């Protein structure tokens, strides 16, 4: 029985928990993004930030072959400027280069809303009523968890103590969950916290 939960694609779902290693690009590549490898050091995903893409609030997740699979953009406009939350949209890139909305993430942008959780909505809607995934913990401390609406852990982030610093950390994605989607969420968190994807 297949119990995978694809957001980007079923090909990014594994039948077993998967450890992904994330390494920020060198500081000389301003807003360059990061590289994601498996435990055998094979490149699985590459995330490009605004230093490569040329515009703020734009991120791109590519597969190990360098093919774009997920385009992420921060929503703008007057309605967004008046809102107490920032909204990010993730779009699936198909072979014709067309975009299809697959998820949106909202995060607090003011002190008033700071205690509000970061929530993710999947398109089309999953079985949940108000939100599909929620992020808890601290990205800055490399100690954060993504749970689904039933509070089941989907992915957990941690620091590789032996490697030192915040340039190298890992994310364990539970079986059946979409790894490309989780890396897209990591890219947004990286940008929100002004790290490797932001100029």
What does this protein structure show overall?
It is a single chain. This protein has 199 residues and is mainly beta. It has a single domain, classed as Porin, CATH 2.40.160. The chain has three helices and twelve strands. The chain has helices spanning 50-53, 78-82, 179-192; strands at 18-24, 33-37, 43-48, 58-63, 68-74, 85-93, 99-108, 118-122, 133-138, 143-148, 153-159, 168-173. Strands 1-2-3-4-5-6-7-8-9-10-11-12 form a twelve-stranded antiparallel beta barrel. This is Protein LURP-one-related 6.
Instruction: Note the quaternary state here.
Output: single chain
Q: N- to C-terminal separation?
A: 45 Å
Mean pLDDT: 84
Gyration radius, rounded: 16 Å
SSE string: EEEHEEHEEEEEEEH
Task: Name the strands of the widest sheet in spatial order.
Answer: 1-2-3-4-5-6-7-8-9-10-11-12
Uncertain stretches of 5 or more adjacent residues: 78-82
Major sheet: size, sense and barrel closure?
12 strands, antiparallel, barrel
Keywords:
LOR, 199 residues, 12% helix, LOR_sf, Tubby-like_C, Protein LURP-one-related 6
Topology, pairings included?
Elements: E1 18-24, E2 33-37, E3 43-48, H1 50-53, E4 58-63, E5 68-74, H2 78-82, E6 85-93, E7 99-108, E8 118-122, E9 133-138, E10 143-148, E11 153-159, E12 168-173, H3 179-192
Antiparallel strand pairs: 1-2, 1-12, 2-3, 3-4, 4-5, 5-6, 6-7, 7-8, 8-9, 9-10, 10-11, 11-12
Summarize the structure.
Belongs to the LOR family. With 199 residues, the chain is mainly β. The chain is 12% helix and 40% strand.
């Amino acid at each position: 029985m297949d119990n995978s939960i694809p957001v980007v694609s079923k090909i990014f779902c594994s039948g077993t928990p998967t450890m992904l290693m994330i390494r920020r690009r060198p500081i000389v590549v301003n807003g360059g993004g990061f590289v994601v490898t498996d435990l055998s050091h094979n490149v699985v995903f590459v995330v490009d930030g605004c230093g490569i893409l040329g515009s703020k609030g734009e991120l791109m997740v590519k597969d190990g072959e360098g093919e774009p699979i997920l385009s992420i953009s921060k929503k703008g406009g007057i309605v967004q400027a008046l809102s107490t939350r920032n909204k990010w949209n993730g779009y699936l890139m198909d072979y014709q280069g067309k975009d299809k909305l697959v998820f949106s993430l909202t995060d607090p942008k003011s002190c008033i809303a700071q205690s509000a959780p970061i929530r993710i909505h999947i398109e089309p809607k999953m079985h949940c009523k108000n939100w599909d995934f929620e992020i808890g913990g601290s990205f800055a401390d490399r100690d954060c968890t993504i749970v689904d609406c039933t509070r089941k852990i989907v992915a957990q982030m941690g620091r590789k103590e032996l490697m030192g610093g915040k340039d190298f950390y890992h994310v364990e994605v539970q079986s059946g969950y979409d790894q490309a989607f989780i890396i897209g969420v990591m890219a947004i968190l990286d940008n929100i916290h002004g790290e490797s994807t932001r100029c």
